[in-house]
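Severity: low
Component: inverse-folding endpoint
Summary: output formatting inconsistent between runs
Steps to reproduce: submit the following structure tokens with default settings.
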């Protein structure tokens, strides 16, 4: 007795290759569960392995402090679904399923790492040719090759993620932090706004080092009642340490280490909302509004109101930075620093109505500009094509001065939002 396809009446569109009836059955009405065709099962697994390879590697590299892997995993699954459809199409026009899946999987890998290759186009042509080679191999040979590729691009990254969660458990060495205690409102400050400006130099350093004259910014801030310090020093050399110390009102480490000596999760937890400033204000009746900056360290933790960041955040940017989509992302969004900063200002403008409304509110925001790379001009328009990526490229600070001018505009816009009874702190990190 031969094996009859349950899709015999559907036509030649490849469905019949996916499932087979149990041997001996000659009628769809018989109660035999279909068994999955091994070649199609391996095809789906191979395409999924290629599509999820980059997201899993990124997750493994940031296993202990990544806020959430869901977004990058969903992107990988969507790419896998497209790959399976393409494999089904190649099978429908006469290709062996594994041959089409092999070509599709390798194309996905090349496109995901497009900018990692010096000459990607010849490589792309080569991997497509691999599909034709696989078509003429024996079924056993195709399956062996597929199993090897699945092990390399699917199983190995899963092992990386698992081992990263099991063995990267050392917490960042920190000092004992101040104990949380309830606070009592004084009644003189209705709202509190804290804005971190990432990488902005002190006023004096901006003038002497970069030739930037923030005269208009200082005038705007002074007119709005701000006290502007000419000279300021950062406590540490990294945002996680500096912002964490600011929110705890004390240094979180004794010395500025040359490199992180453990997972950054304890520092990120502070920045995400589990800190002395937020706890004190919330205990005094302030509602905590946290604007996600686009930096993964600034996602929402234990807050009252979480305001989402941009779609192009740090995790999505790092997922696509080597892919064929990188230039499109950079041309339309700049990078996650720019997307996050513009989104933060828009969200702050939307929150203007909560100031001086008779309710106590605490708002935390983090502008990721003027942090390099230099990708915007003085009007905050995306610079394309990018002529430099570092503000000190060839000792030329002109483009960084333009990025500083863009940031000055954003700071002035934010400063004008504060109400009459709002305490505002705008500081760099």
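Observed output (run 2 of 3):
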């Amino acid at each position: 007795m031969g094996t009859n396809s349950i899709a015999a009446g559907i036509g030649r569109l490849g469905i019949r290759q996916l499932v087979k009836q149990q041997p001996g059955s000659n009628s769809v009405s018989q109660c035999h569960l279909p068994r999955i065709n091994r070649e199609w099962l391996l095809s789906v697994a191979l395409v999924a392995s290629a599509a999820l390879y980059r997201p899993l590697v990124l997750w493994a590299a940031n296993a202990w402090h990544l806020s959430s892997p869901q977004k990058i995993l969903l992107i990988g699954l969507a790419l896998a679904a497209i790959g399976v459809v393409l494999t089904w199409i190649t099978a429908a026009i006469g290709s062996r399923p594994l041959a089409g899946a092999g070509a599709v999987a390798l194309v996905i890998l090349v496109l995901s790492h497009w900018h990692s290759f010096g000459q990607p186009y010849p490589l792309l042509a080569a991997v497509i040719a691999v599909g034709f080679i696989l078509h003429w191999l024996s079924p056993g040979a195709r399956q062996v090759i597929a199993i090897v590729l699945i092990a390399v691009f699917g199983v190995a990254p899963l092992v990386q993620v698992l081992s990263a969660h099991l063995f990267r458990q050392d917490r960042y060495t920190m000092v004992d932090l101040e104990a949380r205690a309830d606070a009592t409102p004084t009644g003189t400050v209705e709202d509190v706004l804290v804005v971190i400006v990432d990488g902005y130099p002190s006023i004096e350093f901006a003038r002497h080092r970069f030739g930037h004259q923030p005269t208009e910014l200082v005038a705007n801030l002074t007119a709005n009642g701000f006290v502007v310090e000419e000279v300021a020093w950062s406590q540490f050399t990294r945002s996680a340490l500096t912002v964490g110390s600011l929110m705890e009102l004390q240094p979180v480490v004794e010395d500025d280490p040359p490199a992180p000596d453990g997972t950054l999760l304890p520092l990120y937890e502070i920045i995400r909302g589990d800190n002395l400033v937020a706890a004190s204000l919330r205990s005094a009746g302030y509602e905590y509004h946290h604007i996600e900056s686009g930096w993964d360290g600034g996602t929402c933790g234990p807050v009252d109101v979480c305001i989402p960041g941009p779609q192009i955040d740090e995790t999505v940017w790092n997922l696509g930075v080597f892919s064929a989509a990188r230039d499109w992302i950079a041309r339309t969004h700049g990078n996650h620093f720019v997307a996050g900063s513009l989104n933060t200002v828009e969200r702050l403008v939307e929150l203007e109505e909560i100031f001086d409304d008779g309710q106590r509110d605490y708002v935390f925001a983090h502008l990721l500009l003027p942090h390099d790379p230099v990708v915007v001009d003085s009007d905050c328009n995306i610079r394309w094509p990018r002529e430099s990526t570092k503000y000190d490229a060839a000792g030329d600070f002109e483009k960084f001065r333009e990025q500083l001018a863009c940031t000055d505009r954003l700071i002035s816009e934010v400063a004008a939002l504060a109400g009459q009874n709002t305490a505002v702190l705008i500081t760099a990190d």
